[in-house]
Specification:
Order of helices and strands of chain A: EEHHHEEHEEEEEHHHEEEEEEEH
Radius of gyration of chain B: 12 Å
Strand content of chain A: 25-35%
Distance between the termini of chain B: 30 Å
Order of helices and strands of chain B: HHHH
Number of domains of chain A: 2
Helix content of chain B: 55-70%
Largest sheet of chain B: none
Number of domains of chain B: 1
Oligomer: heterodimer
Shape of chain B: globular
Largest sheet of chain A: 7 strands, antiparallel
Number of strands of chain A: 16
Structural class of chain B: mainly alpha
Strand content of chain B: under 5%
Shape of chain A: elongated
Helix content of chain A: 25-40%
Distance between the termini of chain A: 33 Å
Chain lengths: 341, 75
């Protein structure tokens, strides 16, 4: 990686492309973010922005070029991305990156400016899990849930999903504010939060036991008309699955899984296709339906619970989709801004 | 014997939400609701189409444009 922001990519184990990009990537979102958060940049900030315009445009250009290159070279693994701001921008020299889990979502929150430490301290203190705070310029490598550091590397590279393509929340070069929120994602999973690094079976179990689902299941009582309707729907769902399954598997615990036909993705991306799955337990009579998505290696990378015992379930995906993450990030940003950072 | 839920009935149900402000994720959720209400009564060909449309909430890889949806519906 050189100081001009040239992208460097390399293929790592598990078929994951890990990418490091130099450059303050959120610069392109600056105007958007100013408007979104109602910030009026100070004269100093504006002066800095103006004086560094050429350099910043070059960086943004490099970033877009890198994105195009990534899409061309790694159309199947692009989601793994992405990069972190680095010392090419003056403010980044005092920027920090906090790795936290808030409300079950793993976030990389970058802050730059004089009050960086205070802002991130508050976020770390309020997070469910704080993985660490890193100075930009440090290198971090992940092994399971352990984060280790190496001082010599040029940039932080954590395979963090970058939201630059859409409405990236955050502001760069403001004093003490959160400048960037990213999400950890590697092959659709977090490298950092053990609670999100689950097998498909665990993913499903987590989905079923999530508060949203439990609340919906609790709302039904055995004597209610809802219960009768649920029983009716459950029987119809089972009959439907039996008549349309392409593949039927009996599990070692006696449960039967009906797999609908594989539905390939229409557009390129990390998910190659999906199947609608129905699982029935002849022993207990329980029935669960979900959609499972597959990555390009054929492994399950996301599940979406649909139906438990005839009750339609409205729950997020496990792990969440980019749109769900973006929505969560906006909530986090509202929270941090409301905290007076 | 229950009445089959047909493609014609489905089109009547979803056309009102296929306006200019079409949002694939929202549309997919609506199809999802219909699917679970009608599951077991849905004509096989329509069932396939509905499962395709429901996938749009799983990520951009599955999204269709409004025109593509209209075309799939035969409108």
């Amino acid at each position: 990686m050189d100081a001009a922001g040239k992208a460097e990519t390399k293929e790592l184990q598990q078929g994951v492309a890990k990418v490091t990009v130099l450059g303050n990537l959120e610069l392109s979102a600056e105007s958007f973010a100013d408007a979104a958060f109602g910030w009026t940049p100070s004269d100093d900030v504006n002066a800095w922005r103006q004086s560094n315009r050429a350099e910043r445009n070059k960086l943004i250009g490099s970033y877009h070029a890198w994105q195009a290159q990534m899409r061309a070279n790694f159309p199947k693994t692009y989601q793994v991305s992405n990069a972190i701001a680095q010392g090419a921008a003056p403010a980044a020299q005092i920027s920090k990156l906090a790795l936290v889990t808030i409300a079950g979502v793993s976030l990389a929150i970058e802050s730059g400016g004089a009050f960086t430490g205070v802002a991130l301290d508050m976020i770390l203190a309020s997070a469910d899990e704080s993985i660490g705070m890193f100075a930009i310029g440090e290198s971090a490598s992940i092994s399971g849930a352990t984060v280790t550091r190496a001082a010599a590397a040029a940039a932080v590279d954590l395979s963090i999903r970058d939201l630059a393509d859409s409405a990236k929340p955050g502001v760069s070069s403001t004093t003490g504010s959160v400048s960037k929120v990213g999400f950890f994602a590697r092959s659709g999973r977090s490298e950092l939060a053990p609670s999100m690094n689950l097998t498909p079976e665990e993913e499903l179990a987590e989905a079923i036991s999530s508060p949203e689902v439990t609340r919906q299941l609790d709302s039904i009582s055995v004597n209610s008309p809802n219960a009768r309707e649920a029983l009716n729907l459950k029987l119809r769902a089972l009959s439907d699955a039996q008549s349309s399954a392409e593949k039927v598997i009996e599990l070692s615990n006696g449960k039967i899984r009906f797999y609908d036909k594989f539905r390939p993705a229409r557009n390129p991306g990390p998910t190659s296709g999906a199947r609608f799955v129905t699982e029935f337990s002849p022993e207990t009579g329980e029935l669960v339906q979900w959609n499972e998505n597959y990555d390009n290696l054929g492994s399950v990378n996301r599940v979406r619970l649909k139906n438990i015992n005839g009750m339609q379930i409205n729950s997020p995906h496990f792990p969440p989709t980019a749109k769900e993450l973006l929505s969560a990030a906006q909530q986090v940003n509202s929270y941090t801004l409301g905290g007076g950072l | 014997m229950s009445i089959k839920y047909t493609k014609k009935m489905f089109i009547e149900d979803v056309l009102p939400i296929l306006g200019e402000d079409y949002d694939p994720v929202f549309f997919a959720k609506c199809v999802n609701n219909i699917f679970f209400k009608q599951q077991g009564y849905i004509a096989l060909e329509l069932r396939d189409l509905m499962l395709d449309l429901m996938l749009m909430e799983d990520g951009p890889e599955f999204e269709m444009t409004r025109n593509e949806v209209l075309s799939a519906l035969g409108c």
